[in-house]
Design goal:
This protein is an alpha+beta fold. It is 41% helix and 19% strand. Helix 2 packs antiparallel against helix 4 and helix 5 packs across helix 10. The radius of gyration is 38 Å and the shape is elongated. The structure holds 3,4-dihydroxyphenylalanine (DAH).
């Protein structure tokens, strides 16, 4: 028995570089049900009691050596198969990686910003989690104004000057006016939140771009010119605008701007509901109360502001019928904007 154990130990020591199938054969030969080591364990029963200790130790040593060797051989085989597959066929074409495309909302936001940059506007940003002062109070919202209603606004805290998710990017106007001395010319992109049921035309999260221009002697004519320039750059040089009187607490006078329908060219279709016009933004002359609330002398300075929804503008430009498509990130939809990059 002693000789057989030693012979096996030697044999085990010499094994190297085996394929996986060979390793399995070795395992069966040594440790399988009828394997040589298993047989030795069977024979161990007949060993004389005074020799049991010595042989027991030797057998265990042999069994451990075999198990360890098999493990080593397996590791070596795995490593070499990895290495050989890595150097397999370098002329084979690689796995195709689909390149992503920019999201239509990012494309549109960027386009709007770039147009206003040409007019000398700088980009300003602000926090999405805001306080009542910057979203409502400094913007001349009377305390009972419906936009403060819990239905529209997601509140984070209640009480004096509650914390909330901004419902519009007009809050960035306030922060800019508080911190920058006029002249101010900024364009403020951002995400906004409203407590609305999600549908094809409304979402609780969307994007806006706000514009603000404050200087001496800024007039409504300047506002109209800036908007017209933007609309023609964005929708094409034949685009027309019309302004309708409107109301926003933070502008006086206020207007809503329509652009001539880019689908029917103004003749009337189902997109513009037969009117030939599509509403694209709100604007107006900054209310003196807002200037004063932000520390700007309303006798010396005047200005205009405007705000537009990025999803809405993108829907009009590309005739997207359902707002929810922007948030679902279906690659088939996103790929349609590949050429707009
Ligand atoms: N903040 C308005 C909204 O969310 C949009 C807006 C209207 C912004 C008129 C303005 C403005 O700056 O002058 O509906």
């Amino acid at each position: 028995m002693k000789e057989r154990i030693e012979a096996l130990l030697k044999e085990i020591e010499e094994y190297k570089d085996k394929k996986e199938s060979e390793i399995e054969e070795i395992r069966v030969k040594l440790l399988g049900k009828k394997g040589e080591i298993t047989q030795l364990f069977d024979e161990f029963r007949n060993v004389l009691p005074e020799q049991k200790r010595e042989f027991g130790q030797k057998l265990n040593q042999l069994k451990n050596a075999a198990a360890q060797k098999i493990e080593e051989l397996k590791n070596m085989a795995a490593e070499s198969s990895e290495a050989s597959s890595a150097s397999f066929d370098i002329t084979k074409p690689g796995d195709a990686h689909e390149v992503g495309t920019r999201h239509p909302i990012s494309i549109t936001r960027e386009e709007i910003i770039n147009i206003f940059k040409k007019l000398g506007y700088a980009v300003a940003e602000g926090p999405e989690i805001e306080d009542d002062k910057h979203v409502f109070e400094s913007l001349n919202f009377p305390p009972e104004h419906p936009a403060r209603d819990m239905q529209d606004t997601f509140f984070v805290s209640t009480g004096y000057n509650p914390i909330l998710l901004r419902t519009h990017t007009s809050s960035i106007q306030v922060r800019t006016m508080e911190n920058v001395k006029p002249p101010i010319r900024v364009i403020c992109p951002g995400r906004v939140f409203r407590n609305e049921a999600i549908s094809a035309r409304a979402h609780c999260i969307f994007h806006q771009v706000e514009g603000l221009y404050i200087d001496k002697n800024v007039s409504f004519a300047d506002l109209k010119q800036a908007i017209l320039m933007f609309v023609r750059e964005f929708f094409g040089e034949n685009a027309q605008i019309r302004m309708r009187p409107s109301y926003f607490p933070f502008t006086e006078p206020s207007a809503e701007v329509d652009v001539s329908c880019n689908i029917c060219g103004g003749k009337g279709c189902n997109i513009c509901k037969g009117t030939g016009w599509l509403e694209i933004l709100g604007c107006g002359m900054v209310d003196p109360n807002v200037l004063e609330a932000c520390g700007i002398d309303s006798k010396e300075y005047s200005g205009f502001a405007f705000g537009m929804g990025v999803e809405r503008i993108a829907m009009l430009k590309w005739q997207v019928k359902d707002l929810r498509l922007y948030f679902e990130n279906d690659a088939r939809f996103l790929k349609e904007f590949e050429t707009c990059l």
